[in-house]
Amino acid sequence: MIRIGVPARIGGLLSLAFAALGFAPGTSAWAKTSVQPPVLTASAMAVADSFSADAAERILREGGNAVDAAVAVAFTLAVTYPEAGNIGGGGFMTLYVNGKPYFMDYRERAPLAATKTMYLDQNGNVIKGMSLFGMRAVGVPGTVEGMWEVQKRFGKLKWKQVLAPAIRYARDGFEVSDQLQQRRDDAAKDFGDKTNFGQYFGGLQAGTTFKQPDLAMALTRIADQGAKGFYEGRTAEAIATAMKARGGLITKEDLREYKAVWRQPVEADWNGFRVITAPPPSSGGIGLVQLLKMKADSKPAFAGVTLNSPQYIHLVAEIEKRVFADRAQYLGDPDFYRVPVAQLIDDTYLAKRAAEVDREKPSDTKAVQPGLGTSMPEKAETTHFSIIDKWGNAVSNTYTVNGYFGSGEVVDGTGILLNDEMDDFSAKPGVANMFGVVGSDANAIEPKKRPLSSMTPTILTKDGKVAMVIGTPGGSRIFTSIFQVMTDVYDFGMPLPEAVAAMRFHHQLLPPNTIFWEPYKPIEGELAQALEAKGYVLKGQDFNGDIQAIEVNGNKPEAAADPRGRGVTRIVP
Ligand code: DON
To answer: Whose CA is nearest to atom 4 of ligand 1?
Structure first.
């Protein structure tokens, strides 16, 4: 079995206008004018662990909306799900509030001192592990700023109120699960003595209470001072000092200048739904829409083909091949690089690409080129949660420190675990990152640039009402996993919990004609033989995915947490 990347690690301005108008955090204009009656029978959530579910339930019962609950979940997971939950990383939030779609990009940025060749040796070769372990691997964190912005704009409760559960879990502790300890043990082997990981997480043991007093203090500063409690003052000072002491690049200036960005989500019509999903710097939304539309365009090829049969897997792999060819060439941070979003999800373009699919055998990998031509622009660990409130507002949030426990570095005196998101850049054109994906200049390192992501927090609406909220961790597997659950539900009529539990597979152009399978539902026996006979190489990966999804039928929400993880669902009447 092979692992995705390094062993054992994968598997984890309108607001400005509001501020100008003098609205205090937690008392947004929306909240003041909001007198809508509930439109759903209940609020619902699918989140990564029971502690964050308790936190979200408390916030919803105190009168908070989906955004308040989401912010409470994000801060709680930073305490109770430290392999992926974070304040030292970044992510994306897709929102649907009062019938309108929004997208918050709080992805990490490269430090001001970062350079294109910072991970290369004198001979121009990538230095192994440098973008994965230790302070050099860390991008400027965005989570606190992202949460601050969304809560200021759409939250109903006080900022302090939504941080309270996280502070309590950090101060009083929480009971460690077997899965968390297992992931800690795996990560500790990889980090060895390269980082200070063991000093902070050495005492974490299944069945016992784990307390993080330093983190409780850092969270309290954020509760008291808002985002400034992280990007300025004591915490910023501690981050800059730790960076300097251990070879990192992030300075107080980097932190002061960090900005989260409201962006236009990627939107598309599919199967009677409006798909609202992640725009660049994620490749995920574009990838998801390309997959969905190309599959719909290939209806004749899929006619009568059984779900997850050899022929089904072949046809999906053919589509995935083309999606990943585009990803490697065209996608990067839109603030640095003109990403041809509209062209990449254009119906005519995708119909033409779908027509290239070879129905019989895998098409030659080298012959599958980026579809818009090269004259276009010259230039594990993550966690997802889905929440819908009784008013029909929804939050789909995926955030990450990249590998399990990120860089393995904890900021001394704060308990803040830092990401290794710099590995998502293309350190050198054509050289694969932890997830085996390659990139080009579009995703080269530049100061303040955001590394290309695959995170795909997605919301589907029908007739203006939320129909599904979905997302998962999994690096480059993210949007192919979401695609499979969505099509299992809507093309094959599977109930949501079954679709979330169903087998998943993955292909990403490189390595050539390789289908990855997961330990939870391996590809084996006759299915494996049939695929091999078609010319595919089968590879096991150690990562399973962890979908958290909600489906709304009529006015009734149903939630499903992936049986592969320790996620829980909750319906709050
Ligand atoms: O942004 C990305 O695409 C990756 N850093 C996500 C990492 C991830 O999903 C790891 N999870 N297993």
So the answer is: 475
